[in-house]
Design goal:
By secondary structure, the chain is mainly alpha-helical. It is 92% helix and 0% strand. Helix 2 packs antiparallel against helix 3.
């Protein structure tokens, strides 16, 4: 068999990730937002209770990064919708011109 477990598995997962990012950017942004915000919140609480300022700051940065990713997903979703509507409009115009 010519299947290589790790490299082919990585390629399949990367393709799935890219397809999800392309067609469902809000879902990807939301999942990333939740994961980064939860990890960031845990780090903020741990940094606050143990007085470790670097942990507190890194937790805030992770939460901020999650918010940026969510906003990017929303913007990409709007762009995708505009592109699909434009393509539909062009298709209808081409159909009517025939």
């Amino acid at each position: 068999s010519k299947i290589r477990t790790l490299s082919d598995g990585y390629r399949i997962l990367a393709t799935l990730f890219m397809m999800l990012q392309e067609y469902q950017p809000v879902t990807m942004g939301g999942i990333s937002f939740l994961i980064l915000t939860l990890v960031g919140l845990i780090m903020v609480i741990t940094g606050w209770s143990t007085h470790l300022s670097y942990l507190f700051a890194f937790g805030l940065a992770l939460s901020f990064l999650g918010t940026i990713i969510l906003c990017t997903g929303i913007i990409l979703h709007a762009i995708n919708m505009a592109n699909r509507e434009g393509a539909e409009h062009r298709r209808k115009l081409a159909h009517h011109q025939k």
